[in-house]
Amino acid sequence: MKKVLARVRSAKLDMEREILSFWIHVDYEDFGSQGVGGISLDTYDKQKETRVGTAFGCEVIRRLLIAFGVNDLSEMQGRTIWVLGEGEGLGFDPKGVQPLRVDSDVDPVVFDDILKEFKELI
């Protein structure tokens, strides 16, 4: 997986059409801007006929907060981070994020890896 240097313009939880997600908007060192995230952190419960929170969603947020040493995603604003992904330039597909080692020496937060952990528990 490729690492691309970026500065966080904004980061927040988001509720769009009753779907909980998060967005980390970044400006890349080498090219343009991009939103990282937009992953559904909840799911639809057919029995309850409504959306409900998931352990996966909670774990994604928990790991982001720990990795970046913040209590609220908005505190990431202005930080320089690594965005992990595949592809080049405008075709770059973000798969996760990681703080710089001078800020925190933690494992990267790779969204698909977290999802795989939780799918195995189901």
Characterization of the model:
The model has no long low-confidence stretch (mean pLDDT 91). With 122 residues, this protein is of the alpha+beta class. The strands form two sheets. The protein has a six-stranded antiparallel beta sheet. A two-stranded antiparallel sheet has the order 4-5. The chain has one domain. β1 and β2 form a beta hairpin. α1 runs antiparallel to α2.
Percentage of residues in helical conformation: 10-25%
N-end to C-end Cα span: 27 Å
Largest β sheet strand count, sense and barrel closure: 6 strands, antiparallel
Total E-strand runs: 8
The residue-averaged pLDDT reads 91
Query: Which shape, going by the Cα principal axes?
Result: globular
* SSE ordering: EEEEEHEEEH
Index terms:
122 residues; alpha+beta; six-stranded antiparallel beta sheet; two-stranded antiparallel ribbon; 2 helices; 20% helix; globular
How are the SSEs ordered, and which strands pair?
Elements: E1 2-16, E2 19-28, E3 33-37, E4 42-45, E5 50-53, H1 55-68, E6 80-86, E7 93-99, E8 109-110, H2 111-121
Antiparallel strand pairs: 1-2, 1-6, 2-3, 4-5, 6-7, 7-8
Helix pairs in contact: 1-2
Compose a concise summary of this entry.
The chain is an alpha+beta fold. Helices cover 20% and strands 44% of the residues.
